[in-house]
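Weekly structure sync - notes
Attendees: PM, LS, DV (DV joined late)
Agenda: review two folding runs queued last week.

Item 1: First target. Sequence and structure tokens pasted below for the record.
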Amino acid sequence: MSTELVKNEISRFLASKTPEVLCIKGKWGVGKTFSWRRYLQEASQRTAGIGLERYAYVSLFGVNSLDEVKYAIFEGTVKKDQVHQKASLDTLKSTVESAEGFGRKYAWLANLIPGAKSYLSGAAPAFFLTVRNQIVCIDDLERKGSKLESADVLGLTSFLKEERGCKVVLLLNDEALASPDRQKFEAYLEKVVDVSLTFAPTAQECVSVALPDADTDSQLIRDRCSSLGIRNIRVIKKIERLVRTIKPLLQEDAEVFDRATSSLALIGWSYYQPDEAPTLDYLIHKRPKSLFGLKKSQDTPEKETAWNALLDAYGYMSTDEFDLVLIDGVRNGYFDPEKVELHAKEIREKILAARAEGSFEEAWRKYHDSFDNNQDEVLDGIYSSFMKNYNHISPLNLNGTVSLFRELGRDAQASEMIKFYVANRDESRKFFDLEEYAFGSDITDPEIVDAFNAKLATISEERDLPALLLRLKDGWDGDALAALATMPVDEYYRILKESSGQNLRRIIAGALQFEGVVNASPAMKEISKRTKEALTRIGEESDVNARRVTKFGVHVKKPDLEIQSEAAPEASGAE
């Protein structure tokens, strides 16, 4: 039922004085309670918008007895011009004193209110005497305590209508009721409820409710959430928090932020609503197989078929290492700035590569975006683009491409692409170490595995010393320390000169972290010594560099300039 029809029915219900029961059903998070409160507030601002003089809201979350329900209704009652306020001691006293026929006769109830909780079991029936001729909203029936049955709640609802002249609205997710209780609920529902509505707003309506602001970020999040069909307002708000949390880390790159927002909308939905969204396991491990046609149709569950169609329309090809960083952030509740910055740079390069004429992504679009009988044209285009854009293609995408070519009878070209890729990728040992690669278990082509292992064996640790130095801040082993302790000062100098930004800060922090280590090993001391010698050489190159290196405890003396050393970093290696 559209939100407009629900709104009209609620407005009619509120304006009428006739006792009746309205039931509004809907899934969790679609905004039943939010919409009810908004329409109630709007009605309170209209003349004759609310027909009865008093209103009470009660949630049954964890409530285990009818006495508790009765007292909660009494306690939550306010005058109709106070519906925008939360019930308080002041509103409670005023409603008791103004209750029809009770103002004087039962004035003593108002005096019991401050200590009413301690008299709950005995006083609840007396307090409940004041509840009549008013609107009562009973929410969260499906979350009630185990000792309270839905049949009892419906019985109370009927009593309020028939004996107390009340108008009662029930808000619930009937699908979440436990099976035996649900059967009882459905059996009594028709006898008690006058009007039953199903609240099922569209995704666009839900995101508009959750994100009403007109700023650019809100518009971007609205677009992504509605494209995925997310209708849980709480989930949408959590996605919004994720996006706004990561934005300062990507402030200077709008396109990477846009890419992160698209991924976070999907990842957040998967994490917070796994019963409806594609699971994280599917996104990480199974989506690539479906994307490249490696999973046979008979092995694909129906829900995964639907997920594939959704992800194709959304434009989510497969999970990469940047997405893994985002997934970790969602799970941990925070994003690692260093990891975000490191992988955001890779995404920036991929975005630039995708813009180029004949890009790899463009070539694959001819495969995904039509059912033309153009196999040779598609494969020729992918091959040509692969040989041109190999430097921006991940090992996982290499595996998918090679597998496609093998299945379609182009084994020779598949092998040629592997040889070309491995020979021309000038990368560190880590790149070719499939045990280190986040998606190493998904590299299934034996020739790729053999080629990567062979290339790995040819890359000495010495060649990969820059990577060892970069990772030093995160930890080390004896072999790494030994290799870095014997690395020439010239190499330290070269690495420091060629590094910049976050990488430069990490290298220096890692190399100098041993300065304050008690009982530092000879290798640790040598690493610090050689780093400082390289920094000294850099400081001697110019006045500005002489000043820059002082914060690392390096004092450079020059004939025309003497720099006073600033405080060196603490032993922790903080950047």
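Item 2: Second target, run right after the first with the same settings.
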Amino acid sequence: MRYPAKTLSVFAVLAIILFPVPYAAGSQPVEGVLVEAESFDQHGGWKLDTQFINIMGSPYLLAHGLGQPVADAETTVSFPSTGKYRVLVRTKDWVAPWQAKGAPGRFQLAIDGKPLDETFGTKSAKWFWHDGGTVEITKPEVKLTLHDLTGFEGRCDAILFTKDLNYQPPNDLSPMDQWRKGMLGLPAQPVKTKKYDLVVVGGGYSGMGAAISAARMGCSVALIQDRPVLGGNGSSEVRVWAQGLVRRGKYPHIGEIIAEFADSAAASPGTYEEYGDKLKEDVVRAEKNIDLFLNTRAYAVKKEGESIQSVTAFNTRSSKRTEFLGSLFADCTGHGEIGYLAGADYYTHEKGHMGMSNMWTWKEADTEKSFPDVSWALNLNMEDFPYPKRFHGEWFWESGFDKDPIKDLESMRDWNFRAVYGAWNAIKNKGGKDKHANAELTWMAFIGGPRESRMLRGDVILRKKDIVNKIAFSDGCVPSTWSIDLHYPKKQYMQKYPEDPFISQAVFDSRVDRRFGYPVPYRCFYSRNIPNLFMAGRCISVTHEALGTVRVMKTGGMMGEVVGKAAAVCTEKDCSPREVYTDYYQDLEKLMARKGVERRDTIDGEFYISKDSKELPPVIDAYIDPTTLPGLVIDDESNNVQFVGTWTKGEGLKGFVGNHYVYHGKGKKAEIHFKFQVEKTGKYEVRLSYGHHENRATNTPVTIHSPQDSKTVKINQRIKPPLKNGFISLGTFEFEKGQQIEVVMSNEGVDGNVHADAIQVLPAD
């Protein structure tokens, strides 16, 4: 449903903290000390969680130990005076919303090494101030310790020491925020920055693309990211491999910036190292025109008329508030948060939307590993979930399809926790016990990977029918090469928890041009009612179905590159994002035609390429169009191809003919028959296309059958084909016009996988 700007009542609530106002009832500071958990000197093994600030009001520390208690978090606190204090800890029992027993998030608070009698994380389905009793403070400074008891997602937001023994601190968001500022002694007004040409909020692929692109075009840029690392879903925290092809279509240099830092993970989830968090940060910090603000959460917007004047954010460690002034703003938050706060038109697919994933990995250890009782987790048996092959719990561990995609995010993440721990319990302690004595959980994302929430509305709303009918918009510029990929609950695993499924399946519409991509219009990248707001990533102006193709990270990153260049046009011409399309689109086209490494120091500066810039190698296109090859080409998709056995389609080995190749393992009989006729009697060379790999066969038999003769050639498919476009010659043959000829590949006697792609028949001079 649509939510026009005038209905956004929450905006007024969130924006109230920007202006000096009297304290609301119950929100006055009290004599005592407030300790924000995120400000602890040492977090130990606790994780800083900033995902749900707009839901529960603050960052918090999470004891994410996969069933092993995490190392203590510690800090030193100064007290204004000694005496008796009541201690209250803001926390929750995170499984209580489902009436699950066991309180897995238990932890203790110790003062100078002595734990309080009360155990926290044991009460309330909602965040609240858990009464810890009274303590006697006998010296000006004391040491506080958060001691995790379980390793199962205990959480602490803040700790209050108050001399008013009957005091109850506020728990509602707006009064609590005012109260926190007073207790922490924060200034009534945030510190203001200089005025930036472009303020980018969100440090995923789209935000990085926008910031780097604009900076290289001479804009001054602030890049705001609420996590300690860049990359979003493509960081080591979430570990989704980057998908979508870059550097193609009308503007083949778009995507070159993304290629500088994109991961090349071999799996999803991959390893920590594969995501290159340091590389991403280094690439951004190398740009002199970018000021990077990590651990900085944007939460409010100030406007002049319909335009955004500033975005206010706070540091998630120190709570320091900063107001970022700008001429232009780019919402790259994924959730469309800045557009929402500014009153931008948007759409949310409320029911049946794609959900949130928390992926996970495991390993076989050298010794036996136990796993504790998790009666509070989902009660799963081995048949209730897909077995985690290759030691990976992949993208399809996904939930929240009918939940509110904003308000229920913490619930979605916690439900995913319960699902994974329930599955692991089945593997370790139930049906999988005998085969998994040494199995050990090694990693699980505590930062969720959402796919769909708010989509901000631009001058064009891209729809599925536009994409499948290849509607050519005049401003089409970012190639989307991913199939329309929508996720739904998988019925096979819905039986036990039909009200909230946790395993998904992908349903593909393959009518997207996966060679060159469908060009997404520029008009999807700016707000139709907030004049100076861009957007890039999954919050752009598309429908639910169209989101299925544009939502992958490299594609979003290219949107960011275009937004950055459009921001430069706006800055140079003193125009709005819309006017870039109506009046200055040729100027944007000129910038999109430039190489990603090209730069200028200022908007009116000269373009140059730095001496230390690295030119990217030529694009190795995944697809070779069979119609562009000489001679007669029979691809594995051709009607003239017959299969024996079930062959698997593949796209992982790049440089194949057509839309994919096929392969088959050794064992059960498998053959592929390429059939053709020649139009003229004579000598012909027959070539075979294949992709080489270490798991391919060294002795793949290929037989050429004609009425005159039959010849079998054995191919070592672990060796790169010697001819252009991945072909190898099978020999020269005499063929007669109109006769049926077959080239047959089989897996008889092979020592690896058989790879089949295409046959090429060329006249032999």
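Discussion on item 2: The first strand starts at residue 32 and ends at 36.
Action: LS to circulate a short write-up before next sync.
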